[in-house]
Amino acid sequence: MLIKICGLTRQEDVDEAARLGADFCGFVFHSGSPRHIAPEQAARLKSGSMRRVGVFVEQEADEILRVMREARLDFAQLHGGQSVACARAVGAERVIRAIWPHRHPHRAQLHAELQRHADACACFLLDAGVAGGGSGRRLDWRKLGEFKAPAPWLLVGGLTADNVRQALSQCAPDGVDFNSGIEDAPGQKNACEMAAAVAAVAQAKAMGRQDER
User: Does 13 qualify as catalytic in the annotation?
Assistant: First the structure.
């Protein structure tokens, strides 16, 4: 189970994410976000072995590639409806594509949208609402119970230490993304909540293995 902690702005929070064994650390490069960080600030944040992800909303390929170089990013999370051509220009193997199931009331429409991007991303991220992110809103996890994607996918949207086990009992993502649900304020993570959230994921995984026996 992959774990991504997003909206990071402080070294102490990045250090804690690394200590807890998170796989990805995320930085938001959208000026309208309260978690916005400049590329040079992100570059100074040491992240150990975690893979570094930049969240892009308004930018297109040239600017995304520039920020990826400046901020030492491994992945670009396209969170603004950027085109397939943009994703391919960035490099499909480096793209995390945000998808909003609420935009697609019928499962066939959602699958069609996933297939449209399947060859231009490394994985998907399913978010709540119809645009943006970091709002704390949740998806209806039960509706994703039998969900199959053409690439690995991460679940995001209002996940906390208190609800992530329930989420993982109702659907089966390849990973989870924590952001607003483990904060004291936008961009300021709560170390205790981060630790509890990661522990809850481990517990959910252990229960899943027991259920398979």
Answer: no
Whether residue 12 contacts residue 39, with contact meaning beta carbons closer than 8 Å, is answered with no
The DSSP secondary structure of 130-197, one letter per residue, reads SS---S-----GGGGTT---SS-EEEESS--TTTHHHHHHH---SEEEESGGGEEETTEE-HHHHHHH
Compute the distance between CA of residue 24 and CA of residue 151 in angstroms, rounded to an integer. 17
Spatial separation of the C-alpha atoms in residues 71 and 52, rounded to whole Å:
9
pTM recorded for the entire structure? 0.93
127 among known catalytic residues: yes
pLDDT the model gives residue 213:
44
Q: Which residue has the tokens 């904060």?
A: 183
Catalytic-labelled residue, pool 86, 123, 127, 177 = 127
Domains located in the chain, CATH noted = 2-212 (3.20.20.70)
192-206 residue pLDDT tens: 999 999 999 999 988
Task: Indicate which residue of 6, 25, 86, 171 is catalytic.
Answer: 6
